[in-house]
Structures are given as structure tokens and as C-alpha cells.
Amino acid sequence: MPEKAGASEWYRLDNAGVLYSALQKETYSAIYRFSAVMDQPVDRQALQRAVDQTVPRFPTFQVRIKKGAFWYYFEPNDAPGPFVKEDISNPCQPVRFREDNGWLVRFYYYEHRISVEVFHAVSDGGGALVFFKTLLAVYLRELGHKIGNTHGILDIGEPPRREELEDAYGKYAQGKGRRWKEREKAYQNTGTPEPFYTLNVTMGFCSVSQLKQKAKGYGVSITEYLAAVLIQVILEKQHRERPRKERPVALAIPINLRAWFPSETLRNFILAVRPVIDPSLGEYTFEEVLSQVHHTLRLKINRQRMRAELTGNVRFTKNRLLQIVPIVLKNPVMSLGYRIAGVRPYSGTYTNPGAFSVPPEMEPHIRRMEVILGQATNPRVHCASISYGDLMEITFAGTQRESDTERDFFRFLVREGIHVKVESNRAE
Hints:
With 428 residues, the protein is of the alpha+beta class. Helices cover 32% and strands 23% of the residues. The protein has helices spanning 15-23, 44-54, 125-142, 168-172, 208-218, 222-241, 286-300, 303-317, 320-324, 327-343, 404-415, and strands at 2-5, 8-12, 31-38, 63-67, 72-76, 84-86, 105-110, 113-119, 200-207, 249-256, 270-273, 276-277, 348-351, 366-373, 381-388, 391-398, 421-424. Strand 15 and strand 16 form a beta hairpin. Helix 1 (15-23) packs across helix 10 (327-343). The termini are far apart. Mean pLDDT is 93; it is low at 1-8.
């Protein structure tokens, strides 16, 4: 919740925000992007007016980050901006807290595409999609279209509700806490690093109905199916490399906790689950990988386990000793802890925020949605997907030169009978 600091409002960072701020450095920021490809070329002036109207409705996005003696914190940003800019070839570049008037959200346009980039300390994908959907509605109104405040679009004429600003981690941290932190090193799936700052982005487009039919045939969800495909191709990649010892292949899959705990927060409210396959136990068929992913997710995604984990995480950041450690000492320790518990146990990340739904009157004006997870802390690819209507968009993005993970992934889908169209910003 917002705290009073003299005459201005400031916000404590939530648990996820604390981590992402500690990891921040000149060459790395936790940044992600959502884009909408519109039916008409973007009107920059209309989009800037929409930004100017929408941002004040979302006070947790209208912030700058400040460095205190012991923690980072947010304060309202009354500087000019944020300004709509022409898009760049390498998206999701690191933020610098003292540049761009301190804004932690960015807005871009190019031809038919409108994009928003968000520093993860501000919000997760669930909160950012509410923000972006509202912005798109206001933009279309600026073009003369009548768009209602339904399907998750917020009324920019109303003040923000208290529930939108809450720290949901703190609210639901109750009972016995437990931190399930994996320590076993997974296969890292890294490659040759590109020069700073080059983000290779490859997008695949396929039919939601085809994916749903294929997943249903296996008795799994689309998320489980795509996660299993990704694990399968990474397993095969590691096997081709013939290492002396094959390591587990594991994914970090963020889970939107709003589906399990009644919260309207527009800040962070996610936890990650870890499906894993250990090839040292023997060979796995794809059906066996699917079964393992399916049952792992069903076992770990439950209210009791997730409450225990978020409680453990909150109690860790509220540890009295940690509270009094100066931030200049705390950040390196948290960064090291992240490398041990948040990087080494995983081969990559896969996130699927689900279907992007809008009011019927908005549907003809949006052709498709896109999502990009920014760079990892090491040269490997992240995977993300989002659907709009019957079109599923799947993105691989990373700073490694090799493209075998994404190539093998989309080839696997094609062999499964799913038609895929691929686009990339790679030079070759």
C-alpha cells in the first residue's frame, strides 16, 4: 500500500520488485514488452494523447524509483512524459533509473504496431495487460471509436481503487511460510553472446484451435503442451552436444496468483513453478515428458502451497537482519542468491498470460497481439506466448547468437501437424 512520506506519496516495492531492482545494472534490466498490431497505421499524436490520459489513472505505473539507504522505493513521477517514440530494432533495452526522466514504462509505435515496455519491478504481465488494454481503448476513442469500459478496461475518469494499489504478497502472507528453492543446477541452454545490446527475436504464429485440439488429444492444456515441447527440444539439444554428464532440463513458468487469491492489484503477484526432466534417469518419450509436465503443474499449482511459498518469500525480505543491511551490500548478496536459486536451476523461462480479450467493438481494430520477454542474465532464450482470437503468437527472445532452440521448437510443432508462420529480426 502507498505510504506517506511528507507531502508526497511513496510506495514500498513488493517482493518481486525488491528482487528486480537488486538485479538492475547497466547491462541488464528485467524488461518485457506487449504489442498490438492494429488494422490501421498508428497515429502518433492520438497515441500520445492516449498515453497522457491513461498513465495518471495508473499511479503505480506513474512512478520513478529511488535508492534509499536500505531499500529502493517508488515515488510519483511528475516529470514530462512518458513520450511516444518511434520503435527501435532491439527492444527491451535496459533502463537507467536516472535517464528518460526516470520513467519505467516506455511507449513505441511503428507502422501498425503499438508497443509498451515495462520494468518488472513496476508490475507483472497481468497488471501490465490491464494497463495496455485500457490504453488501447483510449487510443481508439481518440480516433473516434466508441469503446466501453468492459472486458477489463478501466475507466480513466474514475480514481484508482485501493485494491489496485495493494501489495498482494504482503496481504496474503499468512500461516506457515516455506521457500521451495531448487539448488540442483540445470542444463543452462546458453550460447555465444551477441554484442551489447542485440536482442534476437523470433515469433511464430499458429492457430489456437489447432493447438487446443492437439493438446486435448494428449489430455493436457495448451500451456502444458507448449512447455513440454520446449523441454523436449532442449533435451534433444543437450543430447546432441554429448556432455560428459547430462543435466536436468527445467523451466520457470510464472503463475498469475490472481486466479487463486482474490486480488485486483496492478503490481506484481506471481510465483514460478518448475517442471523438470532429468535425462540421467533414462530416455523419455514426448508423451512421458508431457505427462511429467502435466502432473508437476497440477501438483504444485494449488492455493495452500502457493500461500506457503509467498509467505516464506515475504518473511525473508522482512528479516530483521536483512532490513538493516545497507543497500550497497544487500544488492550483491541478493544478486548472488538469484544466480544460485533463480538461474542455475533453470534452462529457461516460458510464460503464457493467456487470451487477450477485448470488447466486441475493439476486435476489428486489432489484428494480433505480441509479447517479448527481455534478455536473460545469461545468453539464452526466453519463451512467451499470447493469443488473440484464433491466433497464438509465440516469441523466443535472447542475446545468444545460435537459433537452434526456436528453430527446433517450431519444427516440432510443424511435425505435429500445426501450421506455423515465423518472423524474426535476425539479420540472416
